[in-house]
Amino acid sequence: MATSDHVDLERFIAGVEKRNSGQPEFVQAVREVAEDIFDFIADKAPYHEYQILRRIAEPDRVMSFRVCWEDDRGNIRVQRGWRVQNNNAIGPYKGGIRFHPSVTESVLKFLAFEQTFKNALTGLPMGGGKGGSNFNPKGKSDHEVMRFCQSFMTELYRHIGADTDVPAGDIGVGGREIGYMFGQYKRITNEFTGVLTGKGLEYGGSLIRTEATGYGCVYFLQNMLKNVGDSVDGKTIVVSGSGNVATHAAEKAVQLGGKVLTLSDSEGFIYDPAGIDQTKIDWIKELKNKRRGRISEYAREFKGSEFHGDGARPWGVACDVALPCATQNELNGSEAKILVANGVMAVSEGANMPTDLDGVHVFKQAQILYAPGKAANAGGVAVSGLEMSQNSARISWKEADLQQHLLDIMAGIHERCVEYGGRPGSTTIDYVRGANIAGFKKVADAMLAYGVV
Ligand code: NDP
Q: Which 3 state secondary structure label does DSSP give 77?
């Protein structure tokens, strides 16, 4: 990047920081994209004239609302809910709902911003949005979760719609929560429409939606490895998280011949030198989805495995491949250096922005195969897009067809990253740059077509 462009970039980021003070995650996400886009648009006057990047980095709107609910002891509890509608240039707003105590407006704005590029990369007509609440579903009874979801939807329903904004699940929001929210939406509006995705199969859900993000993350890894004449078979793989994305990423990695060594939750990680096979993954799914237990229980169940507590993260375990599938900023610069020193050859992000900016720079410099979440975890929203199509047409596609769509979509995203991610003087692909530019270009060109709106 030329020095003058670098000065412009820093001035732009200073403006983003000023306008979004106290929102570090959002500023971080904008910086990560802007570092590539400034270079790309340097000689493209219309993007400057129409202030495209500045406009994408300002959400169309942010709704914030109070959510009251009653716990099982009769106490009235008050939470905050949000929906961030970032950009609908190429389709209705689309993006998950997160329930976690760490949720803030900054976190949701970063996720909605990232979602805008991710959705564009899928090739499907979806804009970017995200929502959620600081509600913590952990330790709550089913009825408490139901009452919270109903109260949340009683406000959210007025902002969403099958052609307006279509939320889905995310951290803390799985099939149970989507069911409660869809039920309340249907009750309030008296309409049965595809307003949420990730629904149960009995009421309009799509086959393979549950698996799609984790599977897609490993398909992306497979594409990166194939591009350099390699495969997943025989690779040692470190995975973080033990939720929807992590368990399905582990499952697909095992199916393709990989050896999964770790999984984690917010309390720590388990290391199983014998490998976490399908039987063990099924046990974890049951632990997390039904018993709602902790990953530490794994070490008591499976002999020879270890639990490392106090919130320890698995990045010190030597591996060929790392799949961060828990949450944002769970892998920092020093951890990235340890992974590289231990010989990691590929990182494919199942979570959104799990690697902090220092870590991203370490991976880029080491020129390993590094896929950012907006490319590697797009399989989930892609199948959500297919769920929307099925709902609109009032049909259900077969599993084999959907599997093929997912494979094709992930291969398409990989191709788009390769197209824009070449490095001058290098044969390796900069997937971060490729994903940022390919996603940006599609949204930006639609915005140019609309003029200033
Ligand atoms: P889940 O709620 O199913 O699982 C989240 C996992 O991450 C849990 O194991 C959780 O542990 C762990 N985790 C959450 N917060 C932290 C933290 N602060 N520190 C350490 N571990 C943590 O969520 P998903 O699997 O659906 O989502 C995981 C990631 O993937 C998120 O970044 C999400 O945005 C992203 N993603 C999800 C998609 C989907 O389809 N579900 C689509 C695209 C991206 P614990 O139980 O202890 O909290």
A: strand
